[in-house]
Amino acid sequence: MRALTWHGKRDVRVDTVPDPTIRNGDDVIVKITTTGLCGSDLHLYEVLGAFLDPGDILGHEPMGIVEEVGPEVTAVKPGDRVVIPFNVSCGTCFMCARGLHSQCETTQVHEHGNGASLFGYTKLYGQVPGGQAQYLRVPFGNTLPIRVPEGPSDDRFVYLSDVLPTAWQAVEYAAVPPGGSVAVLGLGPIGDMSTRIAAHRGAGTVIGIDLVPERLERARRRGVHTLNLKEHGDGLADAVRNLTGGRGPDAVIDAVGMEAHGSRLAAAAQGVTTHLPDALAAAMMKRAGIDRLSALHTAIDLVRRGGTVSVSGVYGGAADPLPLLTMFDKQIQLRMGQANVHRWAPDILALLTDGDPLGVDDFATHRMSLEEAPDAYEMFQKKRDGAVKVLFTP
After folding, report:
1. Do 132 and 16 meet the contact criterion of CB atoms below 8 Å apart?
2. Predicted local distance difference test score (pLDDT) of residue 236
3. Please, what is the Cα angle at 250 between 245 and 253, to 5 degrees?
4. First-residue to last-residue Cα distance in the chain
């Protein structure tokens, strides 16, 4: 089969690799019909090479048709249309039973002290082959795949793999009161969808903050109050407070994470690791890594006293300093974590089968063949051509 594979920093290629096979009785083989390019994939493209091997298959936002099932699988059958969550979760352990699928005890990566394995996402999360490929082996075939109906195009359902549950959890964790206010930092796929979900769930004022004009305009067309970070600069907090009664928003969602523009020191430290031997780079990132924390510090500054900061953007630093004095003084609640896809899937699927209130049918800005994936990674990283969301057809 053809698959998108990692070969080095900013070096991804579409290679011919062996087809996946049934290994365990509850495995499923899925023929991928659509798969997404996620902002988190850019972390692999840029800074997490110490935890990858050449030839690793990337991608964690796939959907497709069941091609083959193991002898123990009864929940799906060949021909069923399914979405595959990015969490590799068993669905039956202590954590999964409590809706914490991203902490699945069956697939936790104990070697690195991390939570549930993820498709296509480094040794830190199990080194499981990913979904930017023609076929994907899916474990836990009775509990992991999400069956979706025939009819609407893949665009209606593919975001159930990551974008929709990640944004849904970000809004849930933000705890925006009915009619309240929320500011979203970063209007990439997760931030954009967070603004839509917040409005759908009853937020009165939704503010979107970014520095890419096309992303700002995209949110503005859906009724979001948009603020250009380049224009407001040090006056951003005042601009946000002017929209929220002078107090600041009830909640702020940080949908930026380690891609934030900020500390040159952190950027340099991240860059240094890409020139070290893998073992040394991995040790440095796990024990002394730091992130560019501009977005998180901005969120803490913007949120009103007694408000909530919800972090959906991925951070990777082990030694990130936080302004705990300010956080304590403002009585800020801070919630974060990988999305628990199955926890939110029923609520979201009900929306996807009742019209298109969140605008998923035209959410993608680019649809490309899998063979074009290397060009897509470069385009998305450089934010060229208005790229917000790229979908591949294997």
Report:
1. no
2. 97
3. 125
4. 10
Closest CA to 365 of 338, 384, 337: 384
- What burial class does residue 335 get, using C-beta atoms within 10 Å of its C-beta: 0-12 exposed, 13-18 middle, 19+ buried? middle
Both tokens of residue 181? Answer: 């206010």
Strand, coil or helix: 56: coil
- Give the tens place of pLDDT for each residue, 222-248: 999 999 999 998 999 999 999 999 999
**Strand intervals (E) in 248-314:** 251-254, 308-311
CB-based contact 25:70 (threshold 8 Å): yes
* Bridge partners of residue 57, in order along the sequence: 5
Could you list the beta-strand ranges (E) of the chain: 2-8, 11-16, 28-37, 62-69, 81-83, 87-88, 117-118, 135-138, 146-147, 181-185, 205-210, 225-228, 251-254, 308-311, 333-336, 366-369, 390-393
Residues of the chain falling short of pLDDT 50:
260-270, 272-276, 280, 283-288, 290
Read off φ and ψ for residue 109, nearest 5 degrees: -95, 85
At 314 the pLDDT is: 76
Distance between CA atoms of residues 240 and 299, nearest Å: 11
Specify the 3-state DSSP secondary structure of 201: coil
E-strand stretches of 219-323: 225-228, 251-254, 308-311
CA–CA dist 392, 394 (Å, integer): 6
pLDDT over 70, % of the chain:
90
Whether 30 and 84 have beta carbons less than 8 Å apart is answered as: yes
Structure tokens at 292: 């560019």
Give, as one character, the DSSP assignment of residue 139.
S
Helices 163-174, 341-352: crossing angle, 10 deg rounding: 100
Per-residue CA distances from 392 to 23, 361, 375, 376 (Å): 27, 15, 12, 9
pTM: 0.91
Bridge partners (DSSP) listed for residue 205 = 181
Amino acid at 7: H
- Residue 272 has a pLDDT of 46
The string of pLDDT tens digits covering residues 81-116 is 999 999 999 999 999 999 999 999 999 999 999 999
